[in-house]
Amino acid sequence: MTYDPLSANPLAGNPLRTRSDVEKALHDLFNPLLPFFSKGSARVRLSGGAAHFDRIAADVEGFARPLWGVTPLAAGGGGFDHWELYRQGLANGMDPEHPEYWGEVSWTDQRMVEMAAIGFTLRMVPHLVWEPLPQRAKDNIAAYLTHIRKYDFADNNWKFFRILVDLGLEEVGVEFDRSLTQKYLEELDGFYIGDGWYRDGNVRRVDHYIPFAMHFYGLIYAKLARGDDERVKRYRERAELFARDIRHWFDEDGGALAFGRSLTYRFACGGIWGALAFADVEALPWSEIKGHFMRHLRWWAKLPIADRDGVLSVGYGYPNLLMSENYNSAGSPYWALKAFLPLALPDDHPFWQAEEAPAQTSAEPVPLKHPGMVMMATPGNAVALSSGQQNYQMRFGAEKYAKLVYSSRYAFSVESDERAYHSAAFDGMIGFSDDSRHYRVRESNEVALIAQDRLYAKWKPWSDVTVETWLVPASPWHIRIHRIQTPRPLHATEGGFAIARANLNADICEDGEGRGLARSPTDLSVILDLTDGARRAGRAHRALPNTNLIAAKTIVPQLRGDIPAGTIILATAALALPAGREAETALANPPAAPDLAELEALFAREGVEVSAIQVAERF
């Protein structure tokens, strides 16, 4: 019998149209975890893989993260048969005399992250996890949580974790130092950069942590806080503004823009839509919010995201440790259950009563100053031209933050061998080599500007090589112009979008002067050289396996050529579309390169720094 990897996806086959469908999906996601609870129920160990934190913390992660889903389920009246596991686990994990004790915290620790779900649970369903416990267990839990909240949390979205713990302690009548709560609420406001957007801490980084963390927790606070009316009002108003922008990160089929770190949390990306519902913030019509929410879950139901036992894997579109971060343990993907927050709402809530409405996509490019992006909606795809993000120092930070273009349908690729220049994917970016073995790409920008719907960046792959890049939408195409100043000859490879490779090599690939093209049964991807004079050679490159986030085997059209010493200008156009008449029509009508002098004049006149590169004054 042939194994079908999709069959292990707990969402597969679920129509995901109704509240009962979503409730079933949650049970189906949780049940594969049951065999992995420890004897004392305080730990859930899902594999032998490791994260940078200790093994006990990883087991706590596996224990706590499902609470983001089962707690709203219970709060909304849904049945869940395993609360005794959680009562025992909480009692034993926080008991210093029990063999499954989680360990004392005295510095910034992963346990701090996982206590947020526990605080949320104490606030939402104390009758299930607190009230039935003996007094000794209650005393241990109170002592553990009040101890852990005294230490400094990481200077980013982590600050919300103390606040969520405090919501729980308040609910069950445990006294704590409320000045620490106020301190973090004020510091979180320092990350706000305007128009609904935050940075995730004191770095120039705007990614999915804004919808699935900063706003997600802020909306929970707005719903559950007692008093603090002024801040609650601000959180609600900011979320309303944000929703109008973040909807452009979601395509018409429900896919979210693949961008940044922590993408192994998968449908947590759609948590913003459920959080709006939970907090009764109708930032968009309920029908549109529900449409984004349900389509997103259905999008994930079609991908092989779980292992054979139905446990969610580390990865994105399929099990893939290569793309992960060093803080991803086997339990990390269960932050995806944050998407189930609206199960806390009754059946008659307007979110659940609404009929799904299609995504409201824009035919024109949508500039987003704060993340430094220009969004384009093409069939089944959300495309982001991108400049201005800080490359957070992590594995594949350049690929996750510094590519020229990102996509929901085609995601992006990470490189698997930094010493294999000629085998690199370079999708959505340009790479340079001076020895035909090693290579450099954009990692950060010295300058990043936005003017109307165009982007500019100045960056250095080496200290003595300067590249200026302009990005221009020409939907469904986009255009890139690079002015390269180098004191020595280089070789350059520039890639288009990666598309899934067909079985039995049933793809049509074209290599030729000035054009690289790949056509599969499902998609077309092409890159064109618009440079005056000498043309780069085109090729359809079969990328190394397991580099792309969605498709394990891909083809990337590329342009390749020598860069002489001195100053050279390259112009490129790229597109990818689902196979069909629209793709062939676009291919037959390529755009012309814009006039560089006019672009420079535009930025001289209207260019402003993207907000992602601004740092709050308090730092």
UniProtKB/TrEMBL annotation:
What PANTHER family does the record point to? LINALOOL DEHYDRATASE_ISOMERASE DOMAIN-CONTAINING PROTEIN
Q: InterPro entries, from UniProt?
A: DUF2264_C (IPR049237), DUF2264_N (IPR049349), UCP014753 (IPR016624)
Q: Indicate what this protein is called per its UniProt record.
A: DUF2264 domain-containing protein
Q: Which residues form a coiled coil?
A: none
Q: Superkingdom of the source? A: Bacteria
Protein species of origin: Devosia geojensis
Q: Domain DUF2264, which positions?
A: 18-358, 365-583
